[in-house]
């Protein structure tokens, strides 16, 4: 654990991403209720609902911020 703590924040985030990507769907047990919520959120994101503004790509989000706050 000490070795990981010595990594930069960027390197630790990259490592988290690599670990996450290494998991298969069957590796993580999800309850039926959580699966339903995830499916609902995914459907909203695919429809492009405004309620999911947090899911915008960083470039779109930054552009929106620049337009709003200059």
Brief sketch in words of this structure:
This protein has helices at residues 2-5, 9-21, 32-47, 58-69. The chain has 70 residues and is mostly helical.
Strand and helix layout:
Blueprint: H1 2-5, H2 9-21, H3 32-47, H4 58-69
Describe, in plain words, how this protein is organized in 3D.
The protein is mainly alpha-helical. It has one domain. Helix content is 64%, strand content 0%. The protein is built from 4 helices and no strands. The protein has helices at 2-5, 9-21, 32-47, 58-69. The model has no long low-confidence stretch (mean pLDDT 82).
What attributes characterize this protein structure?
70 residues; mainly alpha; 4 helices; 64% helix; 0% strand; flat
Helix content: 55-70%
- Determine Rg (CA atoms, Å): 17 Å
Q: Which secondary-structure class do the elements indicate?
A: mainly alpha
Q: What is the oligomeric state here?
A: single chain
Q: Tally the beta strands.
A: 0
| Average pLDDT level | 82
Strand content: under 5%
Q: What does the main sheet amount to?
A: none
Give the CA-based shape. Answer: flat
Low-confidence stretches: none
Number of domains: 1
What is the helix tally? Answer: 4
* First-last Cα distance: 42 Å
Question: What order do the SSEs take from the amino end to the carboxyl end, as H and E?
Answer: HHHH
